[in-house]
Structures are given as C-alpha cells and as structure tokens.
Amino acid sequence: MAEATANISARPAALTRSQWALVLVVIAVVMTALQYAGLLPAALHRLPEYLVPPFAPMLDTVFNFVKDDLGLLAFTRFLTGLLESVLDASANILYGKRRWPNIEPIPWSAIAAIAAVIGYYLGGWRLAVLGAGTFIWTALIGQWKIAMETMSVIVVAAPLAFLIGITLGIVAWRKPWFDRMIKPILSILQTIPFFTYLLPAVIFFKVGPTAGCVATIVFAIPPMILMTTLGLQKVPPEIVEAGHMSGCTRRQLLFKVYLPAARTEILVGVNQVIMLCLAMVVLTAFIGMPGLGAKLLAMMGSFKLGRSFEIGVTIVLLAVMLDRMSKAWVVKQPEHFEKGTSWFVRHKLFVMGAVLFVAFLLIAQVFPILAEIGRKQNFSQGKELDGLIKGFVALDGVQAITGFLRAFLNVKVLIPFRNFLLSIPTPALILLITAFALWLGGPKQARNALIFFCIIALTGWWDRSVITLYSVISAVVLAMILGLPMGIAAARSEKWSRRMLLVCDTAQTFPSFVYLLPAIMLFGITDIAVIFSILIFAMVPLVRYTIEGLRTVPPEMIEAADMAGATRMQKLRHVQLPLALPTMAIGFNQAIMFAFFMVIIAAFIGTQDLGQELQRTLAGTDLGKNFVLGICVALMALTFDMTILKWATDRKKVLGLES
Amino acid sequence: MASETVISCKNVWKIFGSDPEKYLAQMPQGHSFDDIRADGYIAGVKDVSLDVGRGEMLVIMGLSGSGKSTLVRCFSRLHDITGGIIEVEGCDIMKLSEKELIELRRNKMGMVFQSFGLLPHRTVLENVAFPLEMRGQDRHARRARALEMVKLVGLEGREDYFPRELSGGQQQRVGIARSLAIEPDIWFLDEPFSALDPLIRREMQDEFLRLQGLLGKTIVFITHDFDEALRLADRIAIMKDGAVEQCDTPDQIVLNPATEYVRKFTEEIDKARVVHAGVLAKADTPGEGEAVDAGATVQELARLLVQDTRAVIPVVRAGTVIGGMNRQDGLAILLEGS
C-alpha cells in the first residue's frame, strides 16, 4: 500500500501497478464471460493444434545431434564404466554383490557399532542410540539388503556431489562471470521436476544404479554450490587480511584460510547434499534402481500397506539419523586436550570404533545371525500391520470422515474448481496470472509470468498444465487453512513453538516419497489422496515459517502493543501478522515449490497432469517430450517463486526488517 | 628524532569507486572530501605525506571512517593505492610483484587486527605458527619459535586451546604473538585493544609497552582513543576525512593544535599529563639550582611547581642541562585543567 500511494504522488496521470493489474483482471473476466455465453471464437479458448510448434521433435533433433554426432553418448558411456566399477565395489562391500573386491559384505552388527561410535562422537549417547538403533531396526525387520542397495549408491553419490559442488562453488566465488552464468541454471535445476533428471540419466548412463547415481548427484549439487559460495563470501575480512599479512600465496589462502573459515556453511552444504541424495535415491526407483524406494513402490503398488509402512519407517529413520548426525557435525567444535594426554586417549573413540568393528567382524564369523538375518528370521510384521491399518481405515468413524471428505470435498469443491479452471480461455488465464505477478511482484515479474505461460500454451500441454496448477493451488490453499492456525497457535508459547519446529524440521528431512504412504492408506488410490499427500508435504514449511515469522517479531513492538492496551486478537492482527508476513511469504513460497515437486511424484497414484505424462516418457526414449513437460512445470514454479520472493524482499525493505 | 626512515609516503591517495585511477587523474586541485563524494567516489586516504623513522612509534588517531585503517592497509599493500608513492625501506611497494610482496610480508611485517583475525580451526600454537608455516619453515623450528612467542605474551599452558575457548584479551595476545612470530621489523597494530573492555585494555597497553621496551620495533599503531594515543605515541597523526590534520609529538599537538578540528579534540585533555618539562625548556635561560628531568610531565612536577620559588627551573636530559623551564608556564598548564 505504501508503495502504491508513493506511485500516485509521483505520477498522477499514469495508472498505478494495482490499477493495471485490475485492468488485466477485467479483460480476463470479460473473456471468460464471453466463453460461457458461447460467443468466444474457439481459437481464443485454446490454441489450435496447427499453431503448436513441434518443440518435442525439434528438441529431439538437437539431443540426437549432441548425443550421437558430437559423441556425448560415447563419452558418458565411458563415464558409466568408471562409475559402475565404483558402485560395484561399494555394493560388494555393503551387501556382497559379486564384483571386485569380492569380499564378504560387512556384517550388519559391525556397521551398527560404527554408527553408534560416530553418533557418540558427534552428539553424545542420544545420537549413538539413534545410529545403532536405525541399523539394528533395519536388520531385524529384514530390510538389510535393500537398505544397503540404497546406501551403496549414497556413499558414492554424496561424496561426488560434494566434490563437484564445492569445486564449482569455489569457481563461482572467484569468477563473477561464472557466478552470473550459473545462477539462473541453478534456479531452473531446483524447480525442474525430478522426472526430467531421470530420463536423460537413463539414456546416457544405463538403467539401474549408474543412472540413479548420476541423477542423484545432479540433484544434490546446487545447494552445495550455493553454500560454498555463501560461506567463502562470509569469511571475515580480518581473517583474510591476517592470511595476507602472514604471507599466504593464493593457494595457501584458499586451502588454509578461506575453506577452513567457511567450515560451517560448507558443512551445512554437506548436510543438504546427504539429505537430497537420500530423497532422490529413493525416487530413482522409477527408473529401476533397486533398493528401499523400489521395494516401497512395489509394495504400495500392490497395496501391501503393512510392509510399505515398515519400509517407510526405515527410510524415515535413515533420514533422521543422517540429518541429525550431519547437523551435529556442523555445530561440533574442536576441543583441546590437556597437555601430555596420550595418543590413545586423544583418539579414544577412533580406537574404540576400530576395536568394535573388528570384534563384530570376528564374532559374526561364529554367529552368522550377527552377519546376516535370513528370510525366516526377521521380525517383519507386514501381514499383521496390514490387517491393523486396513482395520483402522475401515472403522466407522474413520470411514465416515474419509468418506465425507471424498464425497464433499472432492465432488463439491475440488472437481468443480478444476472444471472451472479448465473452462477459462487460455489467454484469460495467462492474463490473470500476469495480473497476479504485476500486483504482487512488479513489472519485471509480470513480464516473466506472461512469457513463461505463453511458452506453456505454445507447448500444447495447456490442459495438463492447468490440472497440475489446480492440484498445487487446491493443496496449498487447504494446507494454509489447516497450517496457519496451527502455526499461530503454536507461536503463542515458547514451549509449543519449539516442539512444533522440531516436528517440522524432522518432517522436512523425510524423503518426499514417504508422504504418499499415509495418503494411500487413508484414501486409497483416489484423486483426494493426491491432494492429501501434497497438502501434508506443503504444510510443513507453512507452519514452520509462520512460527518463525511470529516469534521473530521484535519484542519491543509487542511490548509497545501491550502498553497500548491491545487485546490478543488486536495484537495479532495489527502488530504480529503484518510484521511476520514477509517471513510467512517465504514459507508460502516454499509450500508452493514443495507442492510442484510432490504433484509430480503423485503421478504414481494416478493423476491426469504433467506428472503422469512425464512418468510415461520414462518408459521410452522420448527425451524431447520429457524435456518440454519438465520445462512446463519449472516455468510455472519459477513464476510463483520470483513473484512471491520479490514481494517478500520489497515488504521487508518497507518494514525496515533485514532483507 | 628519526635517524632513518623506514616507511615514507608522499602524496598518497586511496580512492574507492568504479574507476578511481581515471577519476584521480582528471580531478581538479583542491577537491574536498564532500566534493569527491558528490562525484560518487570515497576518498579513503587523501593526499597523505608522512614518514616513520626506525624504532619510532607513530600512532594514527581519528574517529571511525577517518581513513586511519585504510592508510595502514596501504602501508602493507592490503589495499593498492590510487596515487602517490609508498616506500618501505627505500623500495616502492607498488612496484613489487606478488611474489616479492609475499616475501616482504613473510619477513618484514607483522599486523594485529581489531577483531583479532584468528583462524578458528587452529589452536593457539598453530595460529602463532601460521606465518612460519606459510613461509615453509620446518615443523620443529616453527614449534620452538611459536612456543617462545606464546611464552612472551604470557599464554603458557594454553598452547592447545582453540580461539573460542579464550577471553578477548587472551585472543588478542595470540594475535600479537602471531604478528611477532616472524620477527618483523615493522609492526602494524589496527585498533588492537578497541574490542576489549577498559580494564583489560589498560592491562594490555602496559603489556604492549613492556614488549616494545623489549623489542624496539618500528610501529604504526591505530586507535580512536586519544588517551591511548597519548600514552603510547612518540608521534601522533590525527586524521579526518582521509587527510592528516596534524602529525607531531603529543606535547606539540596539545600545546599548538594546527587546526580547529585538532583543537576541539584536545580541548578535554588534561594537558598537565601530556606536556613534558623538556618541551617547555628554553635553551637561552638555563636557570639555577636543582634540575628536573626532561621526561617528567608537568603533572608529575606539580608539587615542585607550586612550592618552588625560582622563576626558572633547569631541565636536564641524560645528565646535561638543555635549558630552563619558566615556572609560570608550567603553572599555567597545570591550572588550565581546573
């Protein structure tokens, strides 16, 4: 508002931004009205087929040229060979795949012991229990082999992603032109649906672990680059000057001053790399990568909810363990030992780890149960759990609620909303979105929105895109209806804020795939399950940033409101919410991004949107179509991302909060 | 007093902006700080000429943003200057190659920073040994030297601590030890005690004077605290808006401020604590009777000035009479404060 009034006084003759936006909306409404009256020419409702340029075949030609004529395929096949031998080695060590170095797989008990020692080193006995517990659970429940199939890819992908990311990050920090070049690529990479990573990976790197590993690496690199650059930029100038004055050469300065001083940010990058690797490696089940993801996919597909649940628990445990440990590493500070401490005491935990490892290696030779838990020996309760879950869902009360939601929400709200969106003429919807971007962001955002959605219209995938958009919007709106009150309520007390934030933090580490589980359990394979899975996934950032926004309102402002005699409601409406809104907008933005991510995964349940088409392309070699579909999703996501973030930064500036 | 010039700078300019060299070349004479700012540039250092003699302690004094830190960074070429010449021991540092510059810093210069600039991932000993490690000294030699330095600054027994485990004063001791590890001839200290609380600051100043008594380095010391400057300096350079307003001994700055700005600065100072007998001595009237030492401040002589009845009191430096101090002059300075 402040800006709008400023604009009026500056240029009294011209229309303000919001007035322009209103004009666009009016045009769009008139067009839609004409469409309903049957007066709009068909060509204005949807772009006629003959006008759609053949993007996919064109891209295919380009890809084929690069792939075959420029010899990219030969090169990547060569890399595939290298990667395969590394992956085979890790697979051999972890679950005994018959490849070089052909040794027995490490007994599960030894790995659990190592995890406990590492956990203890990083964060005391709690993490030790978490580390050992995760692996013991995995072994006892009979998922050791599939879990190790997954881990064998992570232990290769995460270090590679780290190395590539940190190198590119250093280059981007040194060379501003490289930074400028790489930034837009990174933001596209972060919004492109993961299915678009998968197909090229398959085509260039063979089906199975190699393709899974490559897709995982590509997926995990961007945050590492960003964190490295950020960390290096944040090194205090005096430390750098101290390095210069100590006579460092450039190389010494980088390796002995900059990189160690940027340790925290780099380790945060490592945490993100590990988490993204886990999230992605589970998803690579879609391209035939064996492991936890593939098993979960198969079990959900055949509606074996008990086993799915157990696998879900394993994935969640792994995620929480990896996240907690890597986060503990971030805050872990070196401690000094008193003078004259012996080597053994200084390296107590290292010695203990080595001793335990060897001990379990030897014991496992005598008691094979400690090396491998066979098919009949595990404690899996798949069938029983299955019965329990199905029984719970069939309870009258639960049935009533889910049935009501299915009947009312789906039939009365969601489907009419979808049909309405589909009935709006293409140009009218483009104008509406442009108006939204103009009103919230500004002219630049509006221009981008216009261009982006025109491109989507031109690809010929308009209806599918609108359905994708519909799922995202409905899920995010529902998430807001549920999440905002939760966040506001929790923010009222310190204790509840902390608890809620912990829940959100933990939930955010779960690989997105896991969110399908409760949706399918409650709603089966239906449209509403899709919305539900997106909804819970999107609710996490909403709640989290609502709490954070409200909790970071400067206390003196709240005290001022208290002294002015504001009631709790007045305080919330007039002081807390306005000040928290920019932060909440970031959560809203993340919710939308998460929703775009999840809606594609939900293709597994059976949707009619872009995700479904994308999933179909995975079966073939239709790289062009795959790419076009991926770009459609990315463009939609980018439009919202740019607009909302622009608003949040503008708003923060107006409010005088740090931006 | 300086027998040999160690650092000499002539008409040094440091301008920040998009194309400072070109701007400086076409800038009209007598452009003020504000004129330059109106053109979109910042004059960090503005036409500064001064010399630092061997073994001298020059204190550069000014408020924040006056360009004192920038100037000291020009001396060590942490900043490349825009115009003028800086010579260190007779060699133009702007003409040095990167390799020569690194050699210069590895062998001749040490620097202490306001917020310490310690490497957080290294222990006290490793921090102190860092410059030695950079120049490739072998492990045992640098350990021995670093231990010696740690002992010198009184941090024995804390060699294996990490910086975050130390208090501010202790951290700065590490910074000082590190800057001395290579046995530099020239020692730069950029507001070394400003981040410390007043009691510790006092203690560190005493410590610093003790070290200087021991080592006798050429020192450029930056501070915004006038009392600190008066306590430590052989000469003080007062800076404002990038330019040096006055560069002289503390006595002269207090007695004869060159500009209005310097006068305002010295207004609140108790001059009796700064002015020495030697400065007041006039060679043509030596006076008679018992002499006072040239190094004594007026305040230290207060009792004598009040009780003595002579008009002129002789002043001696190193055993020889250098002149006589007019007792009324001394009393005038003594009474001015009250």
General description of the model:
The complex is a heterodimer of chains A (659) and B (338). By secondary structure, chain A is mainly α. Chain A contains 29 helices and no strands. In chain B, the strands form three sheets. In chain B, strands 6-7-8-3-9-10 form a six-stranded mixed β-sheet, sandwiched between helices. In chain B, 38% of the residues lie in helices and 24% in strands. Chain B is globular and about 65 Å long. The relative contact order of chain B is 0.11. Chain B is α/β, with parallel strands linked by helices and 338 residues long. At the A-B interface, helix 11 and helix 12 of A face helix 4, strand 6, helix 5 and helix 7 of B.
Give the helix/strand class of chain A: mainly alpha
Quaternary structure annotation: heterodimer
> Uncertain regions of chain A: pLDDT < 50 for 5+ in a row?
1-13
CATH class categorisation of the largest domain in chain B: Alpha Beta
Order of helices and strands of chain B: EHHEEHEEHEHHHEHEHEEHHHEEHEEH
Shape of chain B: globular
- Strand order of the biggest β-sheet of chain B: 6-7-8-3-9-10
Largest interface: A-B, 24 and 39 residues
* Average pLDDT score of chain B: 90
Features:
heterodimer, A: 659 residues, mainly alpha, 80% helix, 0% strand, globular, B: 338 residues, alpha/beta, Rossmann fold, 2 domains, six-stranded mixed beta sheet, four-stranded antiparallel beta sheet, 14 helices, 14 strands, 38% helix, 24% strand
Gist of the model:
The complex is a heterodimer of chains A (659) and B (338). With 659 residues, chain A is mostly helical.
Task: Record the SSE blueprint.
The complex is a heterodimer of chains A (659) and B (338).
Chain A: H1 2-10, H2 17-36, H3 42-45, H4 55-69, H5 72-95, H6 108-140, H7 144-174, H8 176-191, H9 194-205, H10 209-233, H11 237-245, H12 250-261, H13 263-283, H14 292-301, H15 305-331, H16 343-346, H17 348-366, H18 382-394, H19 396-423, H20 426-440, H21 443-459, H22 462-490, H23 494-509, H24 516-523, H25 527-551, H26 555-563, H27 568-601, H28 610-617, H29 623-655
Helix pairs in contact in A: 2-20, 4-29, 5-7, 6-15, 6-17, 7-8, 7-10, 7-13, 8-29, 9-10, 9-29, 10-13, 11-12, 13-15, 14-15, 15-18, 19-22, 20-21, 21-29, 22-25, 22-27, 23-25, 24-25, 25-27, 27-29, 28-29
Chain B: E1 5-16, H1 20-26, H2 33-38, E2 42-53, E3 57-61, H3 68-75, E4 83-88, E5 91-92, H4 98-107, E6 109-112, H5 124-134, H6 139-152, H7 168-180, E7 186-190, H8 198-215, E8 218-223, H9 226-232, E9 235-240, E10 243-248, H10 250-255, H11 260-266, H12 277-280, E11 281-282, E12 292-293, H13 302-307, E13 312-317, E14 320-326, H14 327-336
Parallel strand pairs in B: 3-8, 3-9, 6-7, 7-8, 12-13
Antiparallel strand pairs in B: 1-2, 1-4, 4-5, 9-10, 11-14, 13-14
Helix pairs in contact in B: 5-6, 5-7, 6-7
